[in-house]
Design a protein that fits this description.
Layout: E1 2-6, H1 12-21, E2 25-29, H2 33-41, E3 45-46, H3 50-54, E4 59-62, H4 67-78, E5 87-90, H5 96-108, E6 112-115, E7 118-119, H6 121-127, E8 130-135, H7 138-149, E9 152-159, H8 163-191, H9 196-203, H10 211-214, H11 238-254, H12 260-275, H13 286-290
Parallel strand pairs: 1-2, 1-4, 2-3, 4-5, 5-6, 8-9
Antiparallel strand pairs: 7-8
């Protein structure tokens, strides 16, 4: 299948490479020459522009920073150049309202669009083990699933347009809050004189176990290998966690949902990112709690 892939950053680069590895004809574009070079080395074909990538494509995958970027690319490059019936898969994490508006606009132009944000981070993007949460029609999901399956281990139809973004935002609000709870618990255990590994051995098989502890422990040398073992480099940047928590607060306000834990997590990550450069893994917030 001829697939246009627009946005080859930390996540998109690995995703595009996995599509090429699966045998698809991937025409890739990014504003970064370095990212484009890596994509070509991974088996993609270089496109001169986003419009060039879209022309002749059967499907278009976008992986961009924010809703305004996706809407801009759709309006300027995708809609004028995509043939009727082309499948659009936006894997970016953006606000629900923009996701719905993009799909509505695409449908009006005779295109089939889904929102398909991901969970899993850079390592999963490179390994092809992401989880995709998909919003859109049954037809859109049926067409998108085989493509997304080449980049992930799980592809789940969350509901109608925007449901994928809603699921992603809710998931990451839970992740952000649970990571803070995990960090403060490990910091407390240390101050009480407990050996961190021994506490991990206990909590990971007790009622307090959670993914943030058992799969992503924020202390080096504790549990399985995580970004904490690499000076909190790689993984999921704190700045991106803050972005998702802000989106969650925006979504909560739009439906008058009470989210005190999510709100506090957003507040703590705002302070952490302001003090740090936001580039370290989100689990590095444990440093502020240890101090």
């Amino acid at each position: 299948m001829k697939i246009a892939f627009i946005g080859l950053g930390n996540m998109g680069g690995g995703m595009a490479a996995n599509l090429a590895k699966a045998g698809h004809d991937v025409r890739a574009f990014d504003l970064s020459e370095e990212a484009l070079t890596r994509a070509v080395e991974a088996g993609c074909t270089r496109a001169a522009s986003a419009a060039d990538a879209v022309t002749g494509a059967e499907a278009v995958v976008t992986m961009l920073p924010a809703g305004k970027h996706v809407a801009g690319v759709y309006e300027a490059d995708v809609f004028p150049n995509a043939a009727p019936g082309t499948l659009l898969l936006d894997c970016s994490t953006i606000d629900v309202a923009t996701a719905r508006a993009n799909i509505e606009a695409a449908t009006a132009k005779g295109l089939v669009a889904v929102d398909a944000p991901v969970s899993g981070g850079i390592a999963a993007a490179n390994a092809g083990t992401l989880t995709f949460m998909v919003g859109g029609t049954d037809e859109g999901f049926a067409r998108a699933e085989p493509i997304l399956a080449k980049m992930g281990k799980a592809v789940i139809h969350a509901g109608d347009a925007g449901a994928g973004q809603g699921a992603k935002i809710c998931n990451n609000m839970l992740l952000g809050a649970s990571m803070i709870a995990t960090c403060e618990t490990l910091a407390l255990a240390q101050k009480l004189g407990l050996d961190p590994q021994k506490f991990f051995d206990i909590a990971s098989v007790s009622s307090g176990q959670c993914w943030s502890l058992t799969s992503y422990a924020p202390l080096p040398g504790v549990g399985p290998t995580t970004p904490a073992d690499n000076d909190y480099k790689g993984g999921f940047a704190a700045a991106l966690m803050l972005k998702d928590l802000r989106l969650a607060m925006e979504a909560a306000a739009s439906v008058e949902a009470d989210v005190p834990m999510g709100s506090k997590a957003r507040e703590l990550y705002e302070a952490f990112v302001a003090a740090d450069d936001g580039g370290h893994d989100f689990s590095a917030i444990i440093k502020t709690l240890q101090d």
